[in-house]
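Quick log. Single chain, no ligands specified.
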Amino acid sequence: MTLSGTNINLTINSQQIGGLDLQTQVSTLAFPRGFALDNGTGANQADRLFSDTRTIAISGTDDLDLAGVLTDAFGATCTFVKVKVIAVAAAAANTNTVVVGNAAANQFQGPFGAVTHTVAIAPGGLFVVGRPDATGWPVTAGTGDLLRIANGGAGTTVNYDIVIIGTSA
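-> predicted structure:
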């Protein structure tokens, strides 16, 4: 399995407009950022991709095992040794937030600073983090490999899309 043409991009374009008596002030923001990943396991490389649209039950959790349970688009087991990108998009129709992080056991720390830290994504929101260097965020099978995605409330299910890109070594 090889990955080809992997580009991670974020572009924020905006104008801030203010008025004076005889003039209009305009400040334009252009903030394009991103990186590309070639096929491989080193710096600026990746060779594993998992993506899915998922539903979490009322007050439920979805623990994603990054070391040997997830499958890729072709049905092959997708075992991550390092994670380079995590992207989670909460469905706009959700009532509750989608919470990323803080599995009950075998927590994947990744970009969160500590295994108990979380990020809450509001309905329609997006959470994207990337680390293209050779180190990535390490996955430790059996002790540090569960990425929890949780329903942040009660009463309704939540839907989310997820993309995880990483390496096999």
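The two ends are 13 Å apart (CA to CA).
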